[in-house]
């Protein structure tokens, strides 16, 4: 059928080359592995292990955006042809023509890359829309909507439990550090902001300042630390500026950027609630009183 279609197109197109057929599944899988290799190389050359953050340099970010866009084109084509994440090895042909293709990455790694891609759009902070979408490279909006909440947290939690066990048993320092390094490597499934609070939480654990509960996961502790820190920031801002708390909290839940923060005049409305006298007293430097002492 393919040959008949090609002949028909040649006849009716004046023998001009027309790309009608997508690559076969085996070629798309090879393309996926090749693009993933280039992404891995990009992160390695940028000094980033385990894809734990997006590259800092604009050229590297632009290259990652391009490669991730390309990866998704091959992935969508492969899915149409029957690719599923629960299978990592694919066999094609028989006998002397038989070939086996092993996937170089799994769904968890793909979702971690999707998380890093989102950070290009959000400014790299991982706060979910707190940055700007004026990136000097092409960002595909639909790719920023990939559900990265599906990243399996079981591995990270198992590393945390193992670390606690070794820490409590007072095993030698080398073993404790090895387990801690394993736990840190699993942080790539967290946003940059979450990674920061994970580090703070672990330091508190090491100091013995946290009462660990058996029914609480590592991610739940991170969320709690993040929430408490945000709450402290909000209370500090309210204390200094006298802002309307409900309006401030409402604005913070919208995931705004610099471009749309004042849509419908919502930021101006928040600013109008500032207690100017309080802000002036809190923000302006205090006048220094000079004392002259007569030593004679």
TrEMBL record:
Q: Which InterPro entries match?
A: TypeI_RM_Rsu_C (IPR022625)
Q: Which residues form the Type I restriction enzyme R protein C-terminal domain?
A: 20-284
Q: Which Pfam families match?
A: EcoR124_C
Q: What is this protein called?
A: Type I restriction and modification enzyme-subunit R C terminal
Native source species: Flavobacterium xanthum
């Amino acid at each position: 059928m393919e040959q008949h279609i090609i002949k028909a197109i040649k006849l009716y197109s004046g023998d001009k080359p027309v790309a009608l057929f997508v690559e076969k599944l085996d070629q798309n899988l090879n393309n996926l592995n090749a693009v993933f290799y280039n992404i891995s190389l990009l992160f390695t050359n940028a000094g980033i292990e385990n894809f734990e953050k997006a590259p800092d340099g604009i050229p590297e970010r632009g290259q990652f955006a391009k490669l991730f866009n390309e990866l998704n084109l091959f992935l969508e084509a492969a899915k149409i042809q029957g690719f599923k994440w629960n299978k990592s090895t694919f066999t094609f042909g028989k006998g002397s023509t038989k070939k086996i293709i092993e996937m170089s990455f799994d769904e968890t790694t793909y979702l971690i890359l999707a998380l890093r891609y989102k950070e290009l759009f959000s400014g790299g902070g991982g706060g979910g829309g707190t940055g700007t979408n004026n990136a000097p490279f092409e960002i595909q909006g639909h790719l920023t909507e990939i559900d990265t909440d599906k990243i399996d947290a079981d591995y990270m939690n198992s590393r945390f439990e193992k670390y606690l066990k070794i820490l409590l048993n007072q095993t030698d320092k080398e073993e404790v550090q090895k387990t801690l390094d394993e736990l840190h490597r699993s942080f790539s499934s967290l946003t940059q902001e979450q990674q920061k609070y994970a580090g703070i939480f672990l330091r508190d654990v090491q100091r013995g300042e946290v009462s660990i509960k058996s029914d609480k996961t590592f991610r739940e502790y991170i969320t709690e630390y993040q929430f408490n820190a945000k709450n402290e920031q909000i209370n500090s801002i309210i204390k200094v500026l006298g802002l309307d708390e409900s309006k401030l909290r409402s604005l913070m839940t919208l995931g705004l950027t610099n471009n749309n923060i004042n849509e419908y005049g919502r930021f101006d409305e928040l600013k109008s609630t500032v207690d100017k006298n309080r802000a002036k007293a809190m923000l302006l430097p205090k006048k220094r009183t000079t004392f002259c002492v007569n030593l004679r």
